[in-house]
Amino acid sequence: MRKVTAAVMASTLAFSAFSQAAVTIVGDNGPSAEGASQSSSQIHMFDGISLTEQQRQQMRDLMQRARHDKPPVNVSEMETMHRLVTAENFDESAVRAQAEKMAQEQVARQVEMARVRNQMFQLLTPEQQAVLNEKHQQRMDQLREVARMQRSSDMTLFSSNSNTRSNQ
After folding, report:
1. Buried b vs exposed e over 29-53: b needs ≥16 C-beta within 10 Å?
2. Residue 121 burial by Cβ neighbours in a 10 Å radius (0-12, 13-18, 19+)
3. C-alpha separations of 150 from 3, 40, 85 in Å
4. Which residues contact 27 (CB under 8 A, 6 or more apart)?
5. How far is 83 from 100, CA to CA, in rounded Å?
6. E strand spans, 13-145
7. Which of 23, 28, 68, 133 lies at a CB distance of 3.0 to 4.6 Å from 35, suitable for a disulfide?
């Protein structure tokens, strides 16, 4: 169950990050209203890369097609999960089956978005790709540091809880 939950969460985060990246592909007029509603703390895929107007337009076209082809959010699946979670008797097998179904839908969406991101990446010059890869590496280094700090914090919490229990 943890793997399914982790996959769903990772997929959701990745999709969210990609959606935010798509918002950054705007003209010289600045971000759209959609972009204004997004969290400004998210890192944009193309930050620091100067795109030509032709690249910008090609990426807009790709995103427009992807947005048009994207299946709508499956509200009924979320409702089903909600009913399972709020049921008087917990049915683990039904929850597991529903989570796996939802995870498969999320995987399909993530694969489609990765395909579009690949097409966008291919529109970049080798120099732009190098900048993008460098920025990606910087983000990965930051995430590794956050993960290291979380593990360290978890270990500190675990050892302090163990010490508290052993002193009681």
Report:
1. eebeeebeebeeeeebbbeebebee
2. middle
3. 19, 23, 29
4. 53, 56
5. 16
6. none
7. 23
| Length of the chain measured in residues | 168
Sequence-separated contacts (24+) of 132-138 with Cβ below 8 Å: 132/45, 132/46, 132/49, 135/47, 135/48
Instruction: Look up residue 53 and give its two tokens.
Output: 């107007």
